[in-house]
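quick one
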Amino acid sequence: MHKAIRKNHTPVRRCVICRTNLPKSELNRYVCIKTESGEIKPVLDEEQVMPGRGYYICNSPECEKRFAKFRGWRK
Ligand SMILES: [Zn+2]
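structure w/ zinc ion:
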């Protein structure tokens, strides 16, 4: 259970827009940050290391467009 099949294991995440499961490396991770003006907005976490709740978006232009209107991260 512990060491088997771990080697090529790719973490899979789901695009919050189209709900497709994809390898993490094929998704863009966004993290919500609070700006100095107190506004909460998502920023692209290119290194995928920022703390906080991450939102994964696939590379589809359609999902990027819809993510701009996506409000789930405001909660
Ligand atoms: Zn998507």
